[in-house]
């Protein structure tokens, strides 16, 4: 009987120690979880650049552009090619890309508008494919589209009554059979911070390395420090600002349990393995005492790396 009481006491103490440990350091894997776990460091500047794009103008929105409530019914994207590129002889088409296809003479956009030969993504898989969200008006490329100008032809439906029984179908751009296409400019081959389309590019999405099959054991922390890998990481790097975890401060942990909201599909895309911050410029957030605004206002990789202050530590089952 005495032995049984001792064993029960030891089990109780072990449970308390485990609970305290998990409370201090985040949720623990189940006791019978013998899988190998892998950890990696992602710097704040290593977001998925030129992969996610808005499809609506962010400077001023005209009545004919996409508005909240509109639903995209058709989207075709086009990428720039050299006029002399023989690989696309039968697929390329002359196009003019405008920031505002409804105001093609606006001098404000002359340095940004693009003209040349373009190929539809639907006719070539050279740069992968894309997915678009019909009501949130953004597109995800299957791979980064660097050094390319991207244009869009868009058809959308606009409801004209509150009950969604009446509507008009509209288009942005034009594709006449025998002449130059007019497309909406989504991205420039050499994006500049002064361009309208600079702000179309999302800089708040990070690749976690692949599909997430076990979201409950996905662990992500944000630290202030200079680590570039788990090998050179300083264990004393802070994961909080004045007692509030960075993951809570930046909107990844909305229930404040010390873990990111891994089952919230607005934060973690489990299929793609993408982590999305709610803010488009997370590490320039006004909540941060030490901001990194430079990340979002230069296209120089070296300048971004020099300005870097934070890193993500990602831990998940290795298989």
What's the topology here?
Elements: H1 2-25, E1 37-43, E2 52-54, E3 71-81, E4 93-98, E5 114-120, E6 130-133, E7 138-141, E8 150-159, E9 167-172, E10 181-187, E11 205-207, E12 219-224, E13 240-241, E14 244-245, H2 246-249, E15 268-269, E16 274-276, H3 301-307, E17 310-317
Parallel strand pairs: 4-10
Antiparallel strand pairs: 1-17, 2-7, 3-5, 3-8, 4-5, 6-7, 8-9, 8-10, 11-16, 12-17, 13-14, 15-16
Q: Would you write up a description of this structure?
A:
- The protein is globular.
- It has two domains: 29-48 and 204-317, no CATH class; 52-200, no CATH class.
- It contains three helices and 17 strands.
- Helices cover 11% and strands 29% of the residues.
- By secondary structure, the protein is mainly beta.
- The protein has a five-stranded mixed β-barrel. The protein has a three-stranded antiparallel sheet with strand order 1-17-12, with no helix packed on it.
Essential attributes:
319 residues, globular, five-stranded mixed barrel, single chain, mainly beta, 2 domains, three-stranded antiparallel sheet
